[in-house]
Amino acid sequence: MSMTTLSLVVPCFNEQDNVRDFAESVQQELDPLSAWLEYEIVFINDGSRDATLETLKQLVHEAPCSITVVDFSRNFGKEAAIYAGLQNAKGDYIAFVDADLQQPIAVVRQMLEHLEADPECDAAAAYPQQRLEGAGISFLKRSFYRVINAMCEIPFHADASDFRVIRRPVAEAILAMPEYHRFSKGIFSWIGFNTWYCPYEVQARHAGQSSWSTRQLFHYAFDGIISFSTKPLKLATGLGGVISACSLVYMIVVVLQKLIWGNDVPGYPTLVVLILLMGGIQLVVLGIMGEYLARVHIETKHRPIYLQKARYSCRRGESAQQVEAPKGDRQA
Ligand code: UDP
Ligand code: MG
Fold it and tell me: What is the per-residue DSSP string for 24-46?
């Protein structure tokens, strides 16, 4: 029987106290499957400012399992890290897992076994059964899914994040989307394929703290909507239409007033309100167009999604350490 291969893609940003325990947890869960499964861990050091890289290099040196470390030249964000991980993953299956042990490896195993058993299924995604965050953030996240589902043609599964196991063809499909502004929830929905959703019990963060502030979450949500919907642009047309219709009605009213009662009221307040209202609406619409233009501007530069400073790797048991020259993602 030929072996099944699995690559675990793990983005790391300031995870010095997690990566070692993460690797141990992977070994504990996946080593018992060694009769049919070979696995590798692809860590992406996303510009960590703590000792994450040193810890990862040490792991490569010890070679407890097959490990690849991609070291970024700076922090490019989790989405870029996922892309780099995909480029470096060699497995038939690829799993995306956070380094903070919030997502149990047992669930990765469960998703993998489901895919192995069901050839019709291309990807498995796990969503948290209950959220650990406060009521405020939970409410905002739910609202976000309502808005994005109303605005985009593609459906978004509420709560399903990038905690997934995918087959090789799905990985190739994601790699074929080289956009700079990456929104993985959108990309996963856009590419299609049969996805199996399963609930899991999200764990508390092992060490360190979440690197997302509420402001960043807002930015991320906004980015997601702009990346996968052009509805906000059409808003201008709709708004313009409604306002023109109202103006037309008001014009008739004014003309009739003049004809019937003569021009006794100057209507100064109405004028000021209308000018301010129109100015405000125009600025908002211009702003929305600016957001799209800014993205077009960035995309046309064709900048690499990430820059790699170095790459380290080992096979299980061999501590051979190799370092490769710096490269960007688009040089191949
Ligand atoms: N992460 C990353 N780059 C970043 C921010 C986060 O690679 O700029 C990684 C982080 O190390 C972790 C995963 O993305 O493995 C999820 O991050 P976090 O736990 O902060 O997010 P949360 O679980 O709160 O959504
Ligand atoms: Mg986390």
Answer: HHHHHHHGGGTTTEEEEEEEEE-
Per the model's pLDDT, the better-predicted residue between 332 and 9 turns out to be: 9
Are 187 and 154 in contact by the 8 Å Cβ rule? The answer is: no
pLDDT at position 327 is 62
Condensed to tens digits (0 to 9), the pLDDT of residues 224-269 reads 888 888 888 888 778 888 888 888 888 888 788 888 887 666 777 7
CA of 97 to the centre of ligand 1 (A): 10
Candidates 131, 121, 116; CA nearest to 199 is 131
Residue 141 token pair: 């996240």
3-class secondary-structure state, position 116: helix
List, as ranges, residues with CB under 5 A of the ion ligand 2.
98, 100, 102
Highest mean pLDDT among 29-33, 210-214, 276-280: 29-33
Q: What pTM, to 2 d.p., does this model score?
A: 0.81
Paired with 314 in beta bridges are 67
Report how far Cα 139 is from the mean position of its chain's Cα atoms. Answer: 19
In the numeric block, which tokens belong to residue 308?
Answer: 């790699």
CA distances to 41, 152, 165, 191, 286 from 228, in Å: 31, 6, 23, 12, 19
